[in-house]
């Protein structure tokens, strides 16, 4: 393309852009398309990218992913970084072309090397998490650092996480907090949450519950579910200086409406116990059901209790056992302990000593002190299990170490 043609193509592209946004002329997609097309045929790489975008989104033309991909390719091959990034995303998603992750990564890399912050961020995140590429913390850190240099808030936040965990760089919690703070001030909801968590638990910074709430609230303003849940937990904790039960319910409610199973389970408990809101078993059961449907083991166990007692729902022991088994299968020790008792007593299920002991052992291994005490007692007395003083001592000691006084007394008697 000679100099005169280049000037013509640039003018055509500029006129197309003016029509596209309505700058100096009436906005007109059809005119934008026409001028982009003429400039693209003359080989103008930005016009080719603009034309591809119109085909991709169906602006004044039927959406055509194949045509979009073809024009993105022409532009990308000339080195236009935005087109290289767009080409990578299309290869990622299989838009207008067969899905090809290695080629997508190659084009992300080309765009990233030219300074495309979106490509740098994408590469950093994928390498850090091992998404569609082999996990590589050092390379991830390098790409995130490049994106962070351009002020990308999420990249800055992720760099903070790298320093916090020592991934791809020597661990430095103070540096992590500094980066979280920088990204938080730039408006990153994730960084605001991370910073709040650091202040709540004193990780990399002196513990400060007031600043924890401040940053959680900043994050919650952007509907960060984790921040809403943590605020709910802080405001509902009897040991918290910021206890505010009605406010806790509001936080749990917002998070529950956003689909948080943890919030739904906690909100159900608020309604069940009348914490910060009037006691309402129907609403409690509804929230437990929502949590259970979202996979919450706590929600499933609590829903089982509602069916067992007929609170907020019609009593149904079969459903109670069904939900309790699902919670137990997820590894919830309390649910396992409850099932152990059911099988021992034959409540809602046929009595089965072997199954009872199986669930009791799972609960004990999961750290449930009452299960550890009970299992130790069975070994001590030789009831349902062969008498074994060593195993009795082992389980009683584990229960006692968690503050179980009865286990401590049994352990002392066993030693005497």
Plain-language structure description:
With 416 residues, the protein is mainly alpha-helical. The protein has a domain at 223-330: Tetratricopeptide repeat domain (Serine Threonine Protein Phosphatase 5, Tetratricopeptide repeat, Alpha Horseshoe). It is 72% helix and 0% strand. The longest helix is centred in the first third of the chain and has 19 residues, at 3-21. The chain is elongated, with a radius of gyration of 30 Å.
Class inferred from helices and paired strands: mainly alpha
What is the name of the CATH class of the domain at 223-330?
Mainly Alpha
- Sequence stretches where pLDDT stays below 50 over 5 or more residues: none
Fraction in beta strands: under 5%
The helix tally amounts to 23
Task: Tell me, rounded to a whole number, the average pLDDT.
Answer: 95
Broad shape: elongated
Separation, N- and C-terminal Cα atoms: 98 Å
Q: What is the gist of this entry?
A:
Helix content is about 70%, strand content about 0%.
Question: Would you spell out the secondary-structure blueprint of this structure?
Answer:
Blueprint: H1 3-21, H2 29-41, H3 45-57, H4 65-77, H5 81-93, H6 101-113, H7 117-129, H8 137-149, H9 153-165, H10 173-185, H11 189-201, H12 209-220, H13 225-236, H14 245-257, H15 261-273, H16 281-293, H17 297-309, H18 317-329, H19 333-345, H20 353-365, H21 369-381, H22 389-400, H23 405-415
């Amino acid at each position: 393309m000679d100099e005169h043609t280049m000037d013509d193509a640039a003018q055509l592209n500029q006129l197309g852009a003016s029509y596209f946004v309505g700058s100096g002329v009436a906005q007109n997609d059809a005119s934008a398309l026409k001028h982009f097309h003429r400039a693209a045929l003359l080989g103008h790489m930005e016009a080719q990218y603009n034309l591809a975008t119109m085909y991709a989104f169906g602006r004044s033309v039927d959406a055509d992913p194949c045509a979009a991909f073809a024009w993105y390719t022409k532009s990308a091959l000339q080195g236009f970084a935005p087109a290289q990034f767009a080409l990578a995303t299309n290869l990622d998603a299989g838009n207008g072309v067969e899905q090809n992750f290695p080629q997508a990564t190659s084009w992300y890399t080309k765009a990233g090397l030219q300074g495309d912050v979106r490509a740098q961020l994408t590469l950093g995140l994928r390498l850090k998490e091992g998404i569609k590429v082999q996990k590589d913390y050092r390379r991830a850190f390098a790409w995130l650092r490049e994106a962070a240099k351009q002020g990308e808030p999420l990249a800055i936040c992720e760099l903070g996480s790298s320093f916090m965990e020592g991934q791809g760089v020597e661990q430095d919690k103070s540096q992590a907090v500094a980066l979280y703070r920088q990204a938080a001030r730039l408006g990153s909801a994730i960084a605001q949450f991370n910073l709040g968590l650091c202040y709540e638990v004193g990780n990399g910074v002196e513990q400060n519950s007031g600043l924890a709430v401040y940053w959680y609230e900043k994050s919650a303003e952007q509907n960060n579910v984790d921040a809403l849940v943590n605020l709910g937990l802080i405001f509902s904790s009897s040991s918290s200086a910021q206890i505010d039960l009605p406010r806790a319910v509001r936080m749990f409610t917002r998070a529950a409406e956003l689909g948080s199973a943890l919030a739904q389970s906690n909100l159900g408990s608020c309604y069940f116990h009348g914490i910060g809101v009037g006691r309402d078993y129907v609403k409690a059961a509804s929230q437990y059901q929502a949590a259970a449907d979202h996979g919450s083991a706590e929600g499933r166990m609590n829903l089982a209790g509602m069916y067992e007692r007929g609170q907020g729902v019609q009593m149904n022991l079969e459903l109670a056992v069904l939900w309790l088994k699902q919670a137990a299968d997820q590894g919830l020790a309390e649910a396992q302990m409850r099932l152990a008792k059911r099988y021992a007593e034959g409540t809602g299920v046929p009595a089965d000593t072997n199954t009872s002991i199986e669930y009791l052992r799972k609960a004990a291994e999961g750290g449930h002190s009452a299960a550890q005490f009970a299992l130790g007692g069975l070994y001590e007395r030789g009831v349902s299990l062969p008498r074994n003083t060593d195993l009795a001592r082992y389980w009683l000691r584990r229960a006692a170490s968690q503050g179980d006084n009865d286990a401590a007394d049994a352990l002392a008697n066993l030693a005497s």
